[in-house]
Design brief:
heterodimer; A: alpha/beta; Rossmann fold; 2 domains; six-stranded mixed sheet; four-stranded antiparallel sheet; 10 helices; 12 strands; 32% helix; B: mainly alpha; ABC transporter involved in vitamin B12 uptake, BtuC; ATP binding (chain A)
Amino acid sequence: MDLRLDAVSVAVDGASLVRDLSLHVARGRVVGLIGPNGSGKSTALRCVYRALRPTRGTVRIGGDDLSALTLRQSARRVAALTQQGGSDLDFTVEEVVALGRAPHKRGNEPLTGAERELCRRVMDRLDLLRLAARGVLSLSGGERQRVLVARALVQEPEVLVLDEPTNHLDIRHQVEVLSMLRDDELTVLVVLHDLNLAAAACDRIGVLHQGRIVAEGSPGEVLTAQLVRDVFGVEACVVAHPVTGSPQVLYSLVSTPEGRWT
Amino acid sequence: MIKVRIVFNVGFTSNPPNRTGVPYAATGDPVSVAAPSLDRNGAIGPDGNGAAKRRAPVAGLVAVLVPVLAVSAVLAIGLGPTVIAPGDTARLLWAAVSGGRVGADEATTYQIIWQVRTPRVLLAGVVGAGLSVVGVGVQALVRNALADPFVLGVSSGASVGAVAVTVVGGLASLGVYAVSAGAFAGALAATALVYLASAGRTGMSPLRLVLTGVAMSFGFQAVMSVVVYFAPNSEATSTVLFWTMGSFGAATWGSLPAVAVAVVVAVVVLRRLARPLDVLALGDETAASLGVDAGRLRTGLFVLTALTTGAMVAVSGAIGFVGLVMPHLVRIMAGAGHARVLAVAPLAGAVFMVWADLVSRTLVAPRELPLGVITALVGVPVFIALMRRRGYLFGGR
């Protein structure tokens, strides 16, 4: 299923967080959202997983207007990995992963054998089986992040949205999580801070600045020294990866005077 | 883009085949990881830190707690100023339930058992069960470990209602239940006030709910103090003591049905909400992405817990500590999942309260110690010991 944001605007208490955002994620593609802190990336994602209702505009999944679906219906089609995923309660890894099935179940209906097997497979894939009985509060940040990825995959969504999924992950697990997004048939919208990982992992990249999309296209088209300077206020040069050819951004530790305050 | 994928995968395909059967850990080096991972699974770990959680199976806990509760109840009914042997207690109880005959020589004993102690012990069990499940519900509602059934201002509202009825009079048509009715009305009024004050445009935020409840409690206590201060008789003072420390001294058969129904409804409803409660614990954002409307669930929980708490406070006063600590004790034993917690919590709460009440009325007989004193004196050390022993985690290391 494809994901389409159509002229989405979000205003909270008069402050405009996202303005007129239109973005299309074709079926099975990975689209990245990049931009400085406070540029509206997370707000845009929250409209997709329904933590927020857009003030104007629509979000469509496979042509269906999200706001016409119940929360449960849309949760069966869209899974999210949010920034705020923690709990005070010391659930086990197994329990948290199994909660991914919640939108497919009524109340306390127990998981079927097939669903348990699905949970086991996903945990295996994310190297979590040996942690299955551990309490999530005793895990490292990286392990916890993988638990949340597993929960999202167990949800068996058509569309997966991720808000900085590589947070707290060591480089091996960053690469692993992102390459897994690519291997899967999922339609993915992902917010990433690391421009080089975004260039390697995404088919297309949208750049947000002050709530607006200021550039959109393939990583090669979007990631230029000029854009990095304009949007992030950072001096950089962009080179081609010697093996893959994808653009790589190299930074110098000097901020540009004109970009710093924008 | 396919090229990218191949480059990414080099790191994993170059691993030697996994012969140990132990899954590779984060570093991808099976040799260095195999030993500590055994440790982490709790198999050979020297301490509890980081070990797999050792939890008692729920069915096992229930299978133990049900007979323990039954035996506790019979013992508690037999014990008091007049000690009745457990065998005689059970026989007389059976006679009462089955409509059997009781000899004339046993008429007094029977009166004590059936008219005085049985309703009291049953009420203790019902309220203990109720406080402990409502504690679980309120902690989920406000996502706060320090919350208990009274944090939303319900108990102090009930006290104001009860004291007002005692001092001012009114509700005379309700006879002996007038004070309870006043307490319940006070609880409802407090609930409505807290709800209106904390419900905002963006729904009820957990933190705002707690803060409003705590602030309102102070307000109600001030009102109560003023009423007591100007009250013409000392009856008001003892009423206040009863409602703030809690007691089952006023238990009668008549006071049982309403609160029993409320508690059973709360247990059943909360049990059915176990999975949504788990989801709610992950935060409102995550709840939305898992198809749970946190705002609606929270409103429902608020109404359910407030009504149940009001019904309990009206018959027993505000018995502290149980609703705060029982949920944690049960989580230590059974794990954090709400389906497990809510199966065990009512039984554990009932057993605890039956014994606490027994101690309160026998320790310095014929006087009664306030129940709140017992629950705190017994529960606090037990709780702290358990928490330290099992490496209990709540809200992080």
